[in-house]
Amino acid sequence: MARSLTTHHILTRRTLGLGLLLVPTLASAQDAPCAPISVLFVCQAGTVKIAIASETLKRRATEAGVQVRVSSRGIHPEDHVSAALVANLKADGLYLGKQPALRLSKADVATADIVIAFDKAVQAPELRGARSWDIPSWNADYEGAKAALSAQLDRLMAELRVCPNAAVNKER
Question: Which of 56, 61, 81, 120 could bond to 66 as cystine, CB 3.0-4.6 Å?
Answer without folding.
Answer: 61
